[in-house]
Specification:
- With 429 residues, this protein is α+β, with helices and mostly antiparallel strands.
- The protein contains 13 helices and 18 strands.
- The strands form five sheets. An eight-stranded mixed β-sheet has the order 1-11-12-13-16-10-9-4. A three-stranded antiparallel β-sheet has the order 5-7-6.
- Helix 3 runs antiparallel to helix 4 and helix 5 (140-147) packs across helix 13.
- The longest helix has 36 residues, at 63-98.
Length: 429
């Protein structure tokens, strides 16, 4: 959510942001509803003042005048009740409209319609195409089936389409990747959190997933809760409705969670293997800092570098993309994706997203800090980024480390987490 004063003072700027983000929101209606709300507030306060005066007049008035004054008092009370009811309706409409307003993107963010307008920032490592392996290339699913470490059929039997089971060395590899990222983040000063993955709907609204992305979420309507698609939700909401001290900032958190996504808009897309699935595990980093655009920009670079450090430890080729306005989503000021090379796709595939929100989430969550110089509460800035997500990252790990005999070499960085295992060979089913 953005500051309503910004909409009042610069409506054209907000309309431009909505257009750049391909979002439909009626800014003129927001201004009209806000004007009505303020008019009702003025009338309410005026009537309250008159009501107080009338009460004093009745107490002092002669007996013969009290009936008339009491009648006037009753009319004021009736109107106050009407205003209260209308004000409740107006405030509900204004809140619903404000939830649709996008954050204004950073002027340096590329303007574009969709992912095709994203801008490549840099490449690290050399991609290897399937025809360059010098033997019959197998994609990650063929490798997983051959090695007995991925079981799609039983995953579907248990839970339906876009599900899977990792077994044996596959499960070990999955855990090793997550533990590597976890240890790296702790070594870099991030505080580890274990958080709920079933959260109240207010947190989904507060972090920007409701109302626009409600169809992508697994809902527990009976309890007014939802399964999260990322630990960003509970971690960013951890300090909701709090006023932190400036000296406490920045807050640096890392959390692991199982993530659930309905993939409602992806019917028939990426149905083979582990790329687009309903559940996965992710290490997420979240930064809460003071409302300083320069400082939050520095943290954006830092969290991006953390994710790159994991990919470099895994020796995986990747590229960093700056996401354009039309692809970045509602709440973000600026966004970078990391895409890792996947030979079976003959392309880079998204594995990380690093986002900077300024005060968009903090306003929704009422997450503030007290400025050290003025003592005045101010909304924080929030940022987040994937450190690693698995099993999607297993796609390049398996494919790029395969051998001619169908085995997979374990990257050096993961061997300490796999009991020193250097190579994954076929397992007995």
């Amino acid at each position: 959510m953005i500051d309503l004063r910004l909409i009042r003072e610069h409506p054209d700027l907000v309309k431009q942001a909505a257009a750049q983000k391909n979002m439909s929101v009626d800014i003129d209606r927001i201004l009209a509803v806000d004007a009505r709300r303020r008019a009702l507030e003025t009338e309410f306060n005026d009537l309250r003042f008159r009501q107080n005066q009338a009460g004093e007049q009745i107490a002092r008035a002669p007996k013969e005048q009290r009936a008339e004054l009491t009648k006037a008092m009753s009319q004021i009370k009736a109107r106050l009740k009407e205003i209260d009811a209308e004000r409740e309706r107006v405030e509900a409409e204004l809140h619903a409209l404000m939830l649709l307003v996008p954050q204004i993107p950073d002027p340096s963010a590329p303007v574009g319609r969709d992912a095709s307008d994203n801008v490549e920032v840099r490449r690290v490592g050399t991609p290897q195409r399937r025809q360059e392996f010098g033997f019959d290339f197998r994609d990650h699913l063929d490798l997983g089936l051959h090695l007995g470490i991925i079981d799609i059929d039983r995953g579907v039997k248990i839970a339906g389409s876009r599900n899977y089971v990792l077994r044996g060395a596959g499960a070990q590899l999955h855990e090793a990747v997550l533990r590597l990222a976890w240890d790296l983040m702790i070594a870099r000063g991030f505080v580890p959190l274990t958080v709920p993955v079933l959260v109240n709907d207010r947190l989904m609204e507060g972090t920007g997933f409701f109302p626009l992305h409600r169809d992508e979420v697994y809902l527990c309507e009976r309890d007014g809760q939802s399964l999260v698609g990322t630990a960003e939700v509970p971690v960013t909401g951890y300090h909701s409705d709090e006023i932190l001290e400036e000296a406490e900032l920045p807050k640096l958190y890392v959390a692991r969670s199982t993530c659930f996504r309905r993939e409602a808009g992806a019917a028939g897309k990426d149905t083979r293997g582990l790329y687009r699935i309903h559940y996965f595990d992710k290490i997420e980093q979240v930064v809460i800092c003071k409302a300083d655009p320069a400082e939050s920009a520095q943290w954006h670079e830092a969290i991006l570098a953390n994710a790159e450090a994991v990919l470099q430890a895994l020796e995986l080729p990747y590229r960093v993309m700056e996401v354009c306005t039309g692809d970045m989503g509602q709440g973000k000021v600026r966004m970078f994706d990391i895409e890792t090379w996947m030979p079976s796709r003959d392309a880079y595939g998204e594995t990380h997203s690093a986002s900077r929100f300024h005060d968009f989430q903090a306003r929704r969550l009422n997450l503030r800090y007290r400025r050290g110089d003025t003592g005045k509460p101010e909304f924080c800035h929030t940022l987040n980024n994937t450190v690693i997500a698995s099993p999607r990252i297993l796609i390049p790990l398996l494919e790029l480390n395969q051998n001619a005999d169908g085995s997979v070499t374990v990257p050096n960085a993961l061997r300490p987490y796999m009991g020193g295992l250097e190579r994954i060979g076929p397992e007995r089913h």
